[in-house]
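hey team, just a heads up i'm posting the complex here instead of the shared drive bc the drive is being weird again. everything in one block, sequence lines first with there labels, then the predicted structure for the whole assembly after. its two chains so it's a bit long, scroll down
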Amino acid sequence: MYELSFVKKYLSPKKKQLSVSLIALMSIGVIALVVWLVLLFLSVTEGIERTWLKKLTALNAPLKIQPTEKYFSSYSYLIDQFSSATSYSARSIGEKMRGLASASYDPETDPALPERMPPLDRDQTGSPIDPVGRVSSVLAQLQKKEQGLAYQPFEISGALLRLSLIRQQQTGDTEAQLTQVAFLASFAEENPRLMDLILPPTADDINQLFFAAQRAPDLWNVIDSHISVEAIRPFGSYLRLPPALLPEGVAFAADFSSGKLVVPATHSDKLGSVVRTKEGWIYNGKPLPFTTALLVEGFFEWDARLTLAHTFSVHGQLQGVAISGEIPQQGVVISRAAAKTAFDSSPSVLPLWPYAVKGKPVLPQGGVLLAKNLQESGVKMGDEGYLSYSAPTASAIQEQRLPVRVAGFYDPGILAVGSKCILVASPLAEMINASQSAYSLERTSASGIQVWFPDFNQAFAIKEEIQRALKEQEIDGYCKVVTYHDYDFAKDLMQQFASDKMLFTLIGLIILIVACCNIISLLIILVSDKKKEIGILQAMGASKRSIALIFGLAGGAVGLISSLLGALFAYVTLKNIDILVQLLSFVQGHQAFNTLFFGKSLPHDLSTSALTFVLIATPLIALVAGLIPASKACRISPAETLKAP
Amino acid sequence: MILKARNIVKTYTGAVPTQVLKGVSLDVAAGESVAIMGKSGEGKSTLLTILGTLEEPTSGTLEICGSLPPKSDIPLLRNQKIGFIFQSYNLLEDATLLENLLLPQRIGRQKPDVARALALLEEVGLKERAPLQARFLSGGEKQRAAIARALMNDPPLILADEPTGNLDHSHSTAIQTLLINAVKKRGKALILVTHDPEFAALCDRLLLLKDGTLYS
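-- predicted structure starts here --
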């Protein structure tokens, strides 16, 4: 194609066509800048949206199957209330899926069914309809087809949480109470991303565990098996050191004015000096017995590990001198430690915090998980208390109490009820719900089945597939399938993100069109400049279409080069966006982007959809812009331009 | 018949419409050379551009090699059947001589025949200059290159518009001989517009364009 060689010739910078070259460079620069800006904004917006979606779909699965009123008024649901096998109470979806009940009514022994009882639903073939069983089989089939798909029934109920917060203080132990109305949601072991939401025990939690172990020695088993201490620091301002910790014959700056040897953590020339000998301390040449307490003052952190005798073996520096040895637990707190949370097989000593066995999360028995903001309010792992709820008895409504222990904390993301949601073992939530407690929740949304899959963009496709299968099974009236787009607490956010993206795409498009208008001026100058050449080409047999193509392609090429340059700049900028954010924060004098909304750092990845949009739209707009000068080029009369001057 | 023009009329519209050609008819056979002379402004170049399909006549018919294809195929006809030689050479100044010669083939979507281009350049005495950009050549050399380019696609009709108009006498004579010989040797039809009677005398027929009419 000779047209391309002419495009290349016309766009190559040349001294002879300086004005055209300058305008071409300017056009490329302006369009590249716009492309950079559009890509940067769309990538960041999409990244934030993805982060929020991840948060949203981590705890609340991207898809839920929820029962409808038809289900609750169906024979299948109501029959359990008349069956002695189910203790005359309705079974939850979870219980039914676990095969704990259903169709256990015995007309011989159980009471007669009331007249208002609906008849058993049957499908077109006459087979009885068990909605939960059929949904289960639909999901089991789908699981075989869709890799990574997981599902689990969920239950939401309400109760009053009361926790007793016993804390170790320098002046003695203190106790406080925390009372909070809470929603109870089932701990979803099948959720593939649940472990990402669960926060590992902090040093504070581990300190609390050590404190609890002093009262319950069984806990040492757990500590010895799963906790590795890494560093300790003094609990208060002073720490009494065992004499053996200080090396013999080395002088340390010390003060003895209070009758105790006070050694600052860092060296000071203004103080006296203390030296350890075999017989005792020598303070400023004066011997003192080892019974004289030696206290370290100030902050320090020493590497430490827990010994079998539950003391700390420490290594560190005191006034720049290396020290090592064992110190008791009293007076120190753990500043760094790690708790094991992943196991290849079920551990013999069960941790008291959530852990994963081969990646599958396990909630310790009797444990509950609280939202992380309660951790910020002072609740610690190991705190004990109870869940209180009302349950009707034969004569009255009585308060029931279920003992619970805080097993850890999780990130609730943008869960509507935020800090008020507690994750508990599924049977607990089911039991409280079944007791018809005072916290009456909308029953069509308080239970159902959560479905997870690796890519939440599949939500619509999977929803359609499930709906089709439910229809085939004739149970589409008993349940509805909802995706995260339908969640009340997410709808507004999702719509806002979509509007933001649409708005900026439109603005980006308009700016791109304006930027591409530069191409029109560039090519009009080029056409005027190359009038004679156009005439020569026409005389040699070039068609009007070929002439138009040369200038159209020139426009498209400017667009393509600019988009590639802009995309490259955007990629580099995104990879170094933290530096840009720091610069912006420095210029503004405060944090440029709120971490609550934008996350710890802005997204670093170039959005593929934005890149596709820009790489298609820009050359296309540029091509269209090139058509205006191209049509002008076509109208050039070769007879006029080629005639002798 | 290579070219058959009948009653070609060309009127330029404007504030005062001017009829430049008033019914020109012309037949040119293969191997025949025709010189058209006339005063400046008589419409010689206009007639030539009409015969070369670069401009449409107001009325009249034109046949080249027995027909005139539809408008969309005219560029291809021009590429395959007509070779142009202009007074101001009209080479691509920043392209090499070889590139200039290969241009008609590239436009016609043919495989560039470098050997043929070099042979033609040798014939016009410019083979050594093939890699030079056209802007570095003298006027005479440029016109020789333009003759070679006109012959590149082996067209049956050559249209030359005052090819020696910009050259001094010695160069002019050389070009005249070169063009006439090249055309005769290949049996091409030539229509030459010139002011030079000596050049015109080298052609088989001499025609005079006066007041828009062609006289023998």
